[in-house]
Write a structure and sequence with these properties.
By secondary structure, this protein is α+β, with helices and mostly antiparallel strands. Helix 1 packs antiparallel against helix 2. The longest helix has 31 residues.
């Protein structure tokens, strides 16, 4: 890895020389420059893939999905396809197609079906865009501390409370042109500690609701909220509770209904 990093730096230096004002006059130098740039891109891609492979292997007995260097949306779609085609997932049932006949015969009651469907509504996907440097030695993803290789996990809705002051979601805090919403809510999500280790990682986490099939993101059914901080965590029991923020009233109404049932 050190060798590749040094090699990248040297290629950059050569590129600058080749693309200087004098060198631009010579087409031979331009061809050489483009070739070196192609080598740099190829090596960077290979290094990125190696980082992803290394992070996938550094999970212990956990099974987080680690996304690669391509567009996240494309990789998520391919993950759906891989899951359906996996020999061990022949009976994979999308939420939209789940019905009473999929339950054991002694559970063929509407109440049981409603309970399962309601649980699916409160189940979320977490996209964690940063691995904290504070992960301890021997813990999941320790070797990738400080990296921005995205990993995902699952969690579930725990509670919902009104926020105080201006909205703390990423859209409001990151906007320089609009005033933050004054009506917003805190969403409490329970997940595994190996997925989101601390508040540092929570700030780089996006939580997706209603990610029920590969078209949910495209047709707008999937709703996403940004993480704020970790409220509680227990490393030994591999559990934590994260706080998210949203001013999306339609999402809040759906989540309230989910919690009431």
């Amino acid at each position: 890895m050190v060798f590749l990093t040094t090699f990248f730096v040297e290629i950059r230096k050569i590129e600058k020389k080749l693309y200087s004002s004098k060198s631009r006059q010579n087409s031979h130098f331009l061809v050489m420059g483009n070739t070196l740039r192609g080598i740099h891109t190829s090596l960077h891609s290979k290094t990125q893939k190696e980082r992803v492979r290394r992070k996938k292997m550094d999970q212990g007995h956990h099974e987080c999905e680690v996304l690669g260097s391509g567009p996240e949306a494309t990789e998520s779609d391919s993950a759906w396809n891989r899951c359906r085609k996996n020999p061990g997932h022949l009976k994979f049932i999308p939420v939209a197609k789940f019905c009473g006949k999929h339950l054991p015969q002694n559970c063929w009651e509407q109440m049981a079906l409603d309970y399962v469907c309601n649980m699916s509504t409160g189940t979320v996907r977490l996209r964690v865009g940063y691995t904290s440097a504070r992960r301890p030695r021997g813990y999941s993803f320790y070797t990738d501390r400080g990296s921005n290789i995205l990993h995902t996990g699952s969690g579930w809705l725990y509670a919902l409370t009104p926020g105080v002051g201006p909205c703390q979601c990423s859209r409001c805090t990151g906007s320089t042109t609009s005033t933050p919403h004054q009506t917003w809510f805190k969403i409490y999500i329970d997940t595994a500690c190996h997925v989101v280790f601390n508040s540092e990682e929570a700030k780089f986490t996006t939580v997706d609701f209603f990610y029920d099939d590969e078209t949910a993101r495209i047709d707008g059914r999937m709703k996403s909220v940004s993480g704020l901080e970790l409220m509680h965590k227990d490393v030994a029991d591999d559990w934590c509770r994260m706080i998210c923020a949203t001013h999306d009233q339609s999402l809040v109404d759906k989540l309230k209904l989910c919690l009431e049932q």
